[in-house]
Design goal:
This protein is mainly alpha-helical. The chain has 10 helices and no strands.
């Protein structure tokens, strides 16, 4: 029997306890399906279990993803709290890639909050690390986010450059590459170059 005052885990409540890795996958599926509240539940529990087990690397990963789910729900302060903890854990563990992932998410959150200068600093630092590590997937995602930040500031030429570089370095045919091509089409449209905008959308179609 549990000690008096000790919290009962899910198994004690009649539900089987889920391993942290399963919760991570459960969160990914929920996030992909747009069930962000379920993603928050899965990733927050995964982060707790990883931290309890002393696995700071996986805890930082779970917290970074948790931050994205909070952001999708408009819970910006919770998103900031999660990603700042993730960044601290990654830096303590000298995990440069995970630190760059967290910085990229932090930059995206700050961009959505209108903190453009801080967002640029976060994203520039994340991009420099991703390029130094030779990680094209992470580089492409950061460049796409940078493009969004430039576009939000009305700097469509810089946005276009970032989107084009993102599409060129993205390792997969769909996902980030498609998003960058669609975004570049909107940048062309904003610049009044309608033929290039149409061409960009046509190029993105086979990737979607």
């Amino acid at each position: 029997a549990p000690i008096k005052g000790e919290a009962k885990d899910s198994a004690d409540m009649g539900r089987p306890a889920l391993p942290a890795e399963h919760l991570m996958e459960q969160g990914r599926t929920a996030f992909k399906n747009g069930d962000f509240a379920a993603a928050v539940s899965s990733w927050s529990e995964a982060a707790r279990l990883f931290e309890k087990g002393g696995n700071t690397k996986k805890s930082a990963e779970a917290l970074t993803k948790l931050s994205q789910a909070h952001q999708a729900l408009g819970q910006h302060q919770d998103a900031l709290k999660s990603v700042e903890k993730a960044l601290s854990l990654a830096q303590q563990g000298k995990d440069e890639r995970q630190a760059a992932e967290a910085l990229a998410v932090l930059g995206n959150i700050r961009s959505s909050l209108g903190e453009s200068e801080r967002a640029h600093r976060n994203l520039d630092e994340a991009l420099a690390t991703a390029k130094r590590l030779g990680d094209p997937d992470l580089s492409a995602r950061i460049l796409n986010t940078l493009g969004n930040l430039f576009a939000a500031q009305g700097n469509h030429e810089e946005a276009l450059r970032a989107y084009r570089e993102s599409a060129s370095v993205a390792p997969e045919r769909g996902g980030t590459a498609a998003a960058a091509l669609v975004n570049s089409a909107f940048a062309f449209f904003s610049l009044g170059n309608y033929s290039e905008a149409a061409s960009g959308l046509e190029k993105s179609l086979p990737l979607l």
